[in-house]
C-alpha cells in the first residue's frame, strides 16, 4: 500500500463547513443523472451514478440527498425513480430546460446547501457525456476533487479517507479535507436493487433555478457514435500464465515517459513525436 | 349419577369449544379482507369435503379408509352423543334404542379407525409430525371407547347398575380426556384443529373454482392473482402474517401436518432450506404469535427448530437477522406445485410463497442471486438475458418465417419465447417450424415484437415488471387476428393462458405437444417407425400440474411408435427439473441439485432418451453431467420422424387440407388425394 497522500488543492476554508451540521451527521449530496441502457437506449438509472448512491449509503451516519438537474418528463421520471427505489423518500430536482448548462445551477444549489461530500459518476451516459461536470463544479466551488473512487473508508474531523481505484486492481489511499467532490469508478460496489414500492412512493421535489444556456452546444455537429478502430493486442505468450496476464492487463503504458519541469515547447515536441511514432499523424 | 354428569360434561366441552372457536376466528380475522361468498361456500362445503378432498386423500387407500371410519364415526358419534346423553333422548321409549344403537355403531367404527391410526403411528414415516400428534390415536380411542361403554347401560344391554361407582367415574374421566381432545382441542389448537379449520377452509377457499360442482369438474385455477399496482395504499405483497387475506390464514390453520407436501417437495429433497409443511406451520405460529419451538416435524434442511419467532403484525422476513422465516426458504421454491397437488387440505402454498416474495422484491429490493440483474434486464431489454431485443429473430435468419406484422391474420400464432436466445432451444424451435411446415399449418411469429411473457418476473415477485410486459404483449397481440397461440414453452403457455386473462388478454393457447397431437389425429403428419432405444417422458410442471396436460405428449410419443417407460414419479407426481420459479436464478444452495435427482429417476427406468416439452427442463436436465440418457424435445423427435405421406394411405376419408402456400410445393400429394 502506498503512503497516504494529501490531494492537492484542498482549500483551507473547507473545515468551516462542519459548523453547518450540529448533530454530527455527514451531509452527502449525490448527483444523479438520467442514464441510457447501452443495448436498447431506454432511460434508466445511470450505472456509475447508482454506484455513487450505493457509496453514499455505505457511509455510516450520512444524511444523503439526491440531486438532479434537468427537465422532468415521463422517461426521466422513470429513471429518477430508479434511484428513489434504492430506499429514499425524496429527490431534489433542480429544474433546467433542455439545452441549459446545468453547471451554474448545480453550483448555486451546492454552495447554498453546503454538503460536505458531493458524489458523482465519472461521466453521463447520454448527452455531452464529457465527464467534465465534476471538474467544472469543483472549479466553481473551489473544492478539491478526487476521481475514480472505489470506496470512502472513513470521515473524521472533516477529513475523508478515500480509496482510489487504479488499473489492475491496485488501490491508492488518499485523504482529503471536506468539502470535496468525488467521482465513482466502475470498481466501486455495484448498486443495490431498485425496489418498486419506494420508487413509486418517493417524491421528486422540484426547485426552480435560473437557466443559463449552454452557448457552445448548439454550434456543435452531433452525429451518431461510430465504433473506433482498436489497436489489436498481439500476444506472443509461451505459457498460459503469460496469456492470462496479457488478457487481464489494462493499458499500462510501459514505454511511456514522465516529463517534469519542461517548457511547453519541449512538451509539445514530445507529444508530436509520440503521435508520429504511433502513426496517428503522418 | 351418570345421567346428570354426562350432560354437564358434554355441554361444558361444547361451551369451551365455542369460546375457542371465537378466539380462533378472531385470529384469522387479523388478515386482510377477501371477497368470499360465505353462504354459498358453506353450502358447497360438504361436497368439497366428500368429493374433492377425498379424491386427494384416496391416493392412499389405507389412510383414506382409516379417515372415513374415524372422522365419519366421530361426527356421527358426536351428534348422537349430544342427542342421547346430552339431551337425554336415550331414555325415551321410541327414539332411545335406535339412537343408542346408532351411537354404538358410530363409536365402534371410530374405534376401529383409531386402531388403524394407532398402527400408523407405531412406526411413523419421517414426513409425519410427532409431538401432540402421537397422542391423537389414544385420544380417539379414549373418546370412542368411553362413549361406547357409557352407552351400553343406557340401552339396557348392560343393567344400569353394572360395575361400581368407581368404574363409572373412571369411564367418565376417560371421556373427559376424549372430549378434551375432540371438542376443546379442536378449537384451542390441538391436532383436531384441522377438522374445524379445514372445514371452514374448504368453505371459504380463495380459489373456489378449484372444486368440482354437480355440473362438472373444477378447473385447476393455477394462475397467480394480480396485485393492484395503481392503488398506492394497496400493500405490495405480504410483509407480516396479517397481510395475508383472512381466508389464507384460515387455510394455513387447516394443515394436518401429514407431510405429503414434504415428501414431494424437490427443494426439500435436494437439501435446500425449504419444507412446505414447516412453512405453513410457521405461518400458523405467526398468526398466533410465538416461536416455532413446539413444531414436531422435519425442520427446514440445515435450520434447527426453535430459533425463529414471529407475531401477527411483525415481519415474516427480517431485513437483518432472523424473524419468522429466512428469505432463502422462500427463494428455494421452484413453484412446481407438487405440494399443492398433494395437499389433502387444498392449501395454496405457492400463492403464499409468491405473496411473500413480492414483498421482498417490491419493497425490500432484495431478490437474491442473479435476480436483480435478470429483473433489470427484463425492464431494459424485455428478455432476461439482456440481449438486444432487435436480435430476437437472428436464430431464424435462414428460415424465412412469416411475420404477423406482414400477414395480420393467420390460423396459428407461434409464440417463440425467450428460448430464441438459447442455442439449445433454437434446435427445438427449428424442429417445431419444420413440423408445422410439414403439416401445412398457416402460422406466423411476432418476431421482434414479442417480449418475455413475464413468467420469471412474476415468480421472482416483481409484479410490476410482469404487468408491464404482459400489458405490452397484450397490446401487441390485440393488433392481430389468429385462432390460437402455439408455444413450445410451458411457462409462456401457462402465463398466456391463465394469467393474462386478469389483465385483459384472453386467448386460445396450446402447448406444441397438444397441437402436434391434434395435427396427427387430423392425419396431417406421418411418421417413420421409431428405431431408437427405450424412451421415458418427463412431465413439465407448468404443462402437467399447472394445466393438466398429461395425455397429449404421451399420445405424440405413441404416434411415433414409442412405448414410454414411465418413471416412478410421472404424471401429476412428476418431479420438478429445478428450473421453475426463478430457482436457477436465485440459486439457493442445497446438498444436491434437483436436476441430478431427476436424471436419476430417468436412469432407474433404463431409458436411453428422455423426451421433454419445455426449454427450462431441457436446459436443466442437459446440464446434468454423466447423464445416462439423452434429452430431446418432443418437437425434435417428431421432426426427425417426419415422412411424406405413405403411398397406400390416401383414402378418401382423409381430411388433409393442403394450404395454398404449400400446395404448389407438393404436387404428388395432390394426385394421391384426388
Can you put this structure into words, describing what you see?
The complex is a heterodimer of chains A (282) and B (674). With 282 residues, chain A is an alpha/beta fold. Chain A has two domains: 5-219, HUPs (Rossmann fold, 3-Layer(aba) Sandwich); 240-277, no CATH class. Chain A is 26% helix and 25% strand. Chain A contains seven helices and twelve strands. In chain A, the strands form two sheets. Chain A has a ten-stranded mixed β-sheet. In chain A, strands 3-4 form a two-stranded antiparallel ribbon. In chain A, strand 9 and strand 10 (171-177) form a beta hairpin. In chain A, helix 3 (102-113) crosses helix 4 (133-141). By secondary structure, chain B is mainly alpha-helical. Among the domains of chain B are: 2-205; 241-364, Fumarate Reductase Iron-sulfur Protein, Chain B, domain 2; 384-519, Rossmann fold. Chain B contains 28 helices and nine strands. Chain B has helices at residues 2-28, 38-57, 61-86, 95-122, 136-155, 165-188, 193-203, 246-253, 260-264, 266-269, 276-288, 327-331, 338-342, 349-364, 371-381, 404-407, 423-438, 455-459, 463-477, 490-499, 512-521, 551-559, 583-586, 594-605, 615-622, 634-641, 660-663, 667-673, and strands spanning 290-291, 309-310, 409-415, 443-445, 481-487, 509-511, 535-537, 609-612, 630-633. In chain B, the strands form three sheets. Chain B has a four-stranded parallel β-sheet with strand order 4-3-5-6. In chain B, helix 5 (136-155) crosses helix 6 and helix 7 runs antiparallel to helix 8 (246-253). The longest helix of chain B is centred in the first third of the chain and has 28 residues, at 95-122. Chain B is elongated. Chain B starts with a helix and ends with a helix. Chains A and B meet through helix 5 of A and helix 14 and helix 15 of B. Chain B: InterPro entries: 4Fe4S_Fe-S-bd, 4Fe4S_Fe_S_CS, Csal_0991-like_N, Cys_rich_dom, HdrC_iron-sulfur_subunit, Helical_ferredxn. Chain B: It comes from Billgrantia aerodenitrificans. Chain B: Residues 246-276, 321-352 form the 4Fe-4S ferredoxin-type domain. Chain B: Residues 644-674 are annotated as: Disordered. Chain B: Keywords: 4Fe-4S, Iron, Iron-sulfur, Membrane, Metal-binding, Oxidoreductase, Transmembrane, Transmembrane helix.
